[in-house]
Amino acid sequence: MGHVRYDFSGESVLVTGASRGIGRAVAEAFALAGADVTVLSSGKGIHDAAREIAAKAGRPVRAIECDITDAAAVKSALAGLGRIDVLVNNAGLERITPLLDPDECVEETFRRITDINTNGTFYVTRNAVPHMREGGRIVVTASIWSRVAVPEFSAYITSKHANLGFTRVMAKELGTKGIRVNAVCPGWVRTEAAMLSLKNMSLRTGRGEDDLLAEIVGAQVLPGLLEPEDLAAPYLFLASDGAKDMTGQALMLDRGEVMA
């Protein structure tokens, strides 16, 4: 089987939500491909992630601790950056928000999810684009649930549909500036967020986690649960010259669960 190698030497890459999971794997892949990487997340763990990625890649990695729902904080955090060649909008939150659950915390969770996934993505993009020149690339982490829907994930699915719409609007708006915008739509990936959702689904349905996971994987054409590292290559592809004629598109990366 052939192998693809990417070289991002001399390019500046900003990855949000990079303290763990998909964002961490994507940031590491860019660093290993020679990019000057900046990672951003709201928790202090982002500093550890940056140090670990730097040690593995053998090159410096900058960490920014910032809550992307705070527009002023985002503006301040990104003001200190120089040129941005690639922006990966990956930060997000996934929780169950059952419409018929009377608990008021559901409304609070709904607001928090949409604030991070939708508003935060907008704030980061709005403040990153002035740092981008012609040839810039933006990759958004959407979801297969930006194409379909399942019960009790109203906030997450609403926000991911919004992410896909925002990707298309950005592609139209920024195309004249020579900036390409595409999305990756992951299926079920073994991340902390996904496994928490699986646990909550188990608690609410009374079904075992293994049973639910077997059903999820069984809906795929290709077997096995995706790992965060499996997602990295498509992000590098979309940021490479191999995708120079692609914009406003969404890559489904779900082992054939949703074909759309």
TrEMBL record:
Keywords: Oxidoreductase. The keyword Oxidoreductase applies. InterPro entries: NAD(P)-bd_dom_sf, SDR_fam. The keyword Repressor does not apply. Its EC number is 1.-.-.-. One of its GO terms (molecular function) is oxidoreductase activity. It comes from the Bacteria. It is an enzyme of class 1 (oxidoreductase). Pfam families: adh_short_C2. Belongs to the short-chain dehydrogenases/reductases (SDR) family. This is SDR family oxidoreductase. It comes from Mesorhizobium shangrilense.
